[in-house]
Design goal:
The protein is mainly β and 734 residues long. Helices cover 7% and strands 43% of the residues. A hairpin with a 2-residue loop joins β36 and β37. α3 runs antiparallel to α4. The radius of gyration is 32 Å and the shape is globular.
Amino acid sequence: MQSVSQEYKDSMKGIGRNRGYIKILIGIVNSDAQKNIRLSDETEITYFANTEVLQNEKQAKVYATCENDFSTIDGNMYFLPSNGSAAEFYNNGIVVSNFMEKAVFSFSSDESYDVIGFTIDFGDNYPIDFEISNGNEVLNFTDNKNKIFSTELGLHNVTHLEIIPKKMKNGENSRLRIYSFMMGIANTFTNENTISYNQNDYVSAISDSIPSSDVEIVVANYDQYFNPDNDNSAFAFFEEGQEVKVSFGYDVDGNGNIEWLPETITHLKEWSATDKDATFKSTDIFDYMSGTYYKGEFKPNGISAYELAEEVFLDAEIAKYRIDAYLRNVIIYNPIPAVSHTEALQIIANACRCALYEDRDGTIVIQSDFIPKYEVSANGEYELSNVANVGNDKPKVAYAIQSKGFSSLSDSDLLFANGDVSNVGYVSYEISDSDGNFTKNPIISVKMEADYSPSDFYIVFRNNAPRTFAIKTFANGASVENIIIENPNVMFSYGRQLNSFDYMEIEFLKGQGNDRITVDKILFGAPTDYTIERNMMSESPTITRDEKIKSFVIGKTMFKENSVVKTSTTKFENIQNGEHAIYFSNACYDYSIRNISGSGTVKIKESSCYRLIFTLTGNTTNKLEIETSYKEYDVDDKQTYVVQHNINGIEKTWNNPLISNDLQAKELEEWLADYLLLGINYEFSWRGDPRIDANDLFYMELKSGELANIRGYQNKLSFNGAWSGDMKARKVVV
């Protein structure tokens, strides 16, 4: 679920909603040309130029230089380090050395490219008149008034490009600058030309299936801009897999104050057009991950699930991913079977009690899907203190201590020291001075078992609350939020959702004066504060019940080495020198190979349980027969971990090849039971909300008025000027 303002939340729950907005971006980019374009050596550039903007690295901060009107004193430009300086230079993009000099581009391949349009960020000193040429054709542009220039005029058979300035905004004593260069254009659709938008997302909370996201966009085509019969139409330049970006906005107060939600990225799959409209269908990244993961290995000493997931992403050539730091603490021993990369990630996610999905920005995420336990510690505490206790909701007692305003005779839970700290909370070692300052600020640390995004955060202070404290959160070592709280109540509630974190520090910056920091409880809210009320539904939900589950049977798989050596032969026809592979259906190890017919030398390059890669050199016959010697692991997959929950019902069997011991099986069983045991499913149509994602948690108002915890595993969102939605959800234990 996406974070939004309180104004957004309040307005979206109103009887009548304000206007909603959509912005769709479908780029027509020649990805091969974009990937291979280079600045030619014949272009002389300044020592502070950076050509990486051609590969979409963002320009950062601009240096003031001795050019017409290019040394502003408004704080928007920076002093330029001297040539040869050891300072780290800001990215200023491409800056040619000489005034009014052209920029020439070549390509790292020998191919020629057809490019429909160009999008160029020239910066504030843009060319007013200029040319773009491929050496044979010239595109002339005059009276440009935009620093980000875009044209739908294209060039064919492009093997090199020249951008030639004729007149610059700041005069002839100016250098041509290029902050970004897109080989194509970006089509933007809004409310005015978007006919309909439909998105259907599915995410399994227990990773028992592959997630999916399917989008259909219909836009107006009355001007025949998308004409399939025209080779120069935009339709001829679309590419399967290119990004489709969609953003939704909402007028939170009815006065044009539009709050935009993070854009959703999917990947173009199909496109078609009629005389009236054009339809685009896009899907998730998983639809394009067709490779197989063969690198599964048995690890007798174990490997963290985090490292294992990284290996799968690396093998799949996926760069955009995020793995919950919790997986660093999960140790896996068994090999991943020879399955697709998506299935390999799914198996890891399920074994680690995680959900697998693609985030809105196109990042593949493996995220813990349970409410984590947490441990509390401090950088120092009084002898009559037990900071570990503040993480539980039990009533606390306290000892009378030297702290201004703390020891009140009316406090019925106030004790005199006897050394028993089993039921006390936190008392800081440090005492503030008369102004409330500490020599060393007391800090309480909270370490989460896994990432968590609570709907609220609570601290119950003992009699005295501090004047000022800071809430600092971190995820995987990186800072997430730094929140300063002034003059809190003794019963402190933060009152909004915290962004996902796995570590928190509560630093007390100022006390009341001559007192210690005393805390009875530190508690976190549920993972949601979103309630789907009855009046938000267009009709009563359809409710179904799964068959009652009597018991869960969790399979365990254990690998053991085997002393028996096996052999097999593999024949290759028309084989060339280079790398080749031999595949195994069962998990094997300890390989050796030799060629028994045919010429050349074979040598093992790498191996895993299910694949051996060898190199062949010196072969002249183009035929080869190899004998492979190996050992096959003994695999015991008959043992189970069984937990009975009901007298009657079905036996629910669950097999994950990475589960190898009772502890793993126990944690998996408890997690599955929380999700599956209730067995109540809801399906309903409602008003819809673009901040919602599949797998979000909600409270749902039942007919009785009771609030049920549900998790929406399938979320459909439609927009045709207003939102509507359909959801499938399960009742869950939270």
